[in-house]
Write a structure and sequence with these properties.
The chain is α/β, with parallel strands linked by helices. Helix content is about 40%, strand content about 15%. The protein is built from 14 helices and 16 strands. The radius of gyration is 21 Å and the shape is globular. The chain starts with a strand and ends in a 13-residue tail after the last strand.
């Protein structure tokens, strides 16, 4: 049986010693790790943004850190990947795929895969951005979908977007976001803690708006009846947003999400903007925590969204929270339903194996897709990069220079290091 080989490209400051600190890198690292555990050979190319990347022991696959000047230069990447066999080149940003992905795939003799994990135009529209901005995101994402040989998506919404762009269904795979029940402790709710928790990268505008809603709308009204309740916000964020206030604490970056969710009663996802499956919700469910979320929060979950109580009107949240906090049996029952979902269809072990199976099928039955002529000048800059740069959240390279990558090599095995997370 053919063993597929993958190279994943990822540019983000939101990693720490092999762990992701935001949704997009969490998905990319998980697809890489669990396809590796399913038997694939994996190399991760990570742009050096000055984070603490740890050592090779923190990564379950070969990792190479590259300077930003080299990350977006196909010739430089081909040189540093010399000797690495590549069947599939996987990119998750439409802008980088259009600007240099097709050329890099040609030089590597690889199939180009677009992980379309978000509808970028929908995110822009949900944030109330100008129509020309929304259409610009839609255009570049259509170009990326048509440029790739194969497409993977996280929800049916992105699958429909690929179909509309003309991608044949045989070249598309639906691989939802998930969690690893073997690596996440099932804490369950702690009814006595009276602690609500929100998890997220606060440099991302939909998460920043959610925290603002907690601080300004939800918590003050809740405190009128339950002054003992407090909120724990877990994740990096700008100083003006993460200021301490009554009943709300900000942890910043934590060593493990697992421990940050311990001793909490109810998880919150008051998301009114965004797109795609929400990694925070999967983390909550894996911990056995009951979740209160909006309709946006359950995107990508099964239709009955086990483990999540849905209330889209944030004005109703204080009363809904108060009622849930008084019902210990309901808290536990809801949390257990979510954990069972993670142990079944939303386990990363299952999803990683599905990715390998799909890629084996594509190698065996499908030739590479057409190589359309593309206007890479329309690519633009990814949203996350603009947000982080505007908020001074991009680090400077510390371990690389142009032409001087930093390899963290591992012997290829199908098992992740014990206790890595």
């Amino acid at each position: 049986m053919t063993t597929p080989t993958f190279v994943f490209l990822l540019d983000t400051p939101n990693v720490w010693r092999g762990q992701a600190l935001a949704g997009t890198p969490a998905r990319t690292l998980a697809l890489a790790e669990y396809s590796h555990r399913a038997g694939a050979a994996v190399t991760m190319v990570l742009c050096d943004r000055g984070a603490d990347y740890g050592t090779a022991a923190d990564w379950p696959f070969d990792l190479v850190l590259v300077h930003p000047n080299d990350f977006y230069a196909p010739d430089a990447l081909v040189e540093l990947l010399n000797g690495v066999t590549v069947d599939f080149l996987v990119l998750c940003e439409a802008e980088s795929l259009v600007s240099m992905g097709r050329e890099l795939a040609r030089l590597l003799d690889a199939r180009l895969v677009y992980d379309a994990h978000d509808d970028d135009a929908a995110v822009a529209a949900s944030l109330g951005e100008p129509s020309e901005t929304v259409e610009g995101h839609a255009t570049i994402q259509r170009v990326a979908l048509r440029t790739a040989d194969n497409v993977i998506v996280s929800t049916r919404n992105e699958a429909a977007m690929a179909t509309t762009a003309g991608v044949p269904s045989i070249r598309t795979a639906l691989l939802p976001n998930g969690a690893d029940p073997q690596q996440r402790h099932c804490w369950g709710p702690d009814p006595d803690a009276a602690t609500l928790v929100f998890l997220g990268n606060l440099y991302y505008e939909p998460n920043a708006r959610a925290v603002d809603a907690i601080r300004s709308t939800i918590l003050p009204a809740l405190h009128a009846d339950r002054p003992d309740v407090h909120v724990r916000v877990v994740g990096r964020g700008p100083a003006e947003l993460t200021r301490e206030s009554r009943g709300i604490e900000f942890t910043g970056r934590v060593d493990t999400i697992d421990h940050a969710l311990r001793g909490t009663t109810l998880a919150l996802a008051p998301l009114t903007a965004g797109s795609g499956a929400k990694m925070k919700v999967l983390d909550y469910l894996a911990a056995g925590l009951p979740v209160l979320g909006t309709r946006e929060a359950v995107t990508g979950l099964p239709a009955d969204h086990p483990g999540v109580v849905v209330e889209h009107d944030l004005r109703q949240w204080p009363s809904r929270i108060a009622a849930l906090l008084c019902d210990t049996a309901a808290l536990r029952e809801i949390g257990q339903a979510g954990r069972r979902c993670i142990e079944g269809e939303l386990s990363w072990l299952r999803i990683g194996a599905d990715l390998v199976r799909c890629c084996r099928s594509w190698l065996a039955t499908l030739p590479p897709g057409p190589n359309p002529a593309i206007d890479n000048h329309c690519a633009g800059v990814p949203r996350w990069l603009i947000e982080h740069a505007d908020q001074d959240a991009l680090g400077d390279p510390k371990t690389t220079r142009p032409g001087q990558p930093n390899w963290h090599r591992r012997q290829m095995t199908a098992t992740a290091p014990e206790g890595r997370r």
